[in-house]
Design the sequence.
């Protein structure tokens, strides 16, 4: 690649990173304290606007990111507590705006994020996770994030409950197809491919994720633990 083209590419990446919401940047950097402060501020604002679906959604999404951080740090209690805290706000957002696919997606994602901390929770939350993400799919079948959420749900949901890694890979590949520059979709696809023993493809997906979002610590950690072919 020519120096000028490389400089333009790096500038574009930096611009994209600076425009990412603060809560997503906190997840990239695995900044638990920063993410918890954001949640506290959003929760306070939502408390003053209980009839504002968007305010409730922001609380739910931020808690979903904190639950994801719990998974990344291996802190199951954090993951479970954040997901359960976000479910209440997500349910309120869905009740206020039932036609918003994104609100159903986040509710389904939160229900699914409880399961890694306690597999038996699949009995209670697995149905919620599948129903809400499927509802989101009905409302917007062209959303990369919805396909990714379903894929993550299938990744954690045991085959006995209708999930499994093969289904997860199919959903994540669809997410990448719909939005090729979605770093998170490439990240999760790499993780699922590694679980399936397809390490060469996994490393390719993880490298692509890091190319799109170099600040994502978890992507780098996942690449480092993926065996070279």
Sequence:
């Amino acid at each position: 690649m020519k120096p000028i083209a490389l400089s333009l590419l790096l500038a574009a990446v930096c611009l994209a990173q600076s425009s990412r919401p603060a809560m997503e940047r906190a997840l990239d950097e695995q900044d638990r304290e920063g993410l918890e402060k954001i949640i506290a501020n959003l929760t306070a604002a939502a408390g003053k606007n209980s009839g504002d679906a968007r305010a409730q959604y922001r609380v739910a999404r931020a808690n979903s990111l904190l639950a994801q951080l719990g998974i990344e740090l291996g802190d199951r209690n954090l993951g479970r507590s954040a997901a359960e805290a976000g479910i209440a706000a997500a349910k309120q957002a869905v009740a206020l705006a039932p036609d918003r696919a994104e609100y159903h997606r986040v509710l389904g994602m939160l229900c699914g994020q409880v399961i890694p901390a306690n597999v038996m929770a699949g009995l209670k939350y697995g149905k919620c996770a599948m129903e809400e993400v499927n509802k989101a799919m009905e409302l917007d079948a062209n959303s990369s994030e919805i396909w990714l959420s379903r894929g993550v749900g299938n990744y954690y949901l045991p085959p006995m409950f209708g999930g499994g890694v093969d289904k997860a890979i199919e959903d994540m590949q669809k997410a990448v197809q719909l939005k090729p520059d979605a770093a998170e979709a490439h990240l999760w696809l790499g993780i699922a491919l590694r679980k399936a023993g397809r390490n060469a493809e996994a490393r390719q997906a993880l490298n692509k994720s890091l190319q799109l979002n170099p600040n994502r610590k978890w992507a780098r950690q996942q690449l480092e633990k993926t065996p070279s072919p």
Observations:
- The chain is about 75% helix and 0% strand.
- Residues 5-18 have pLDDT under 50 and may be disordered.
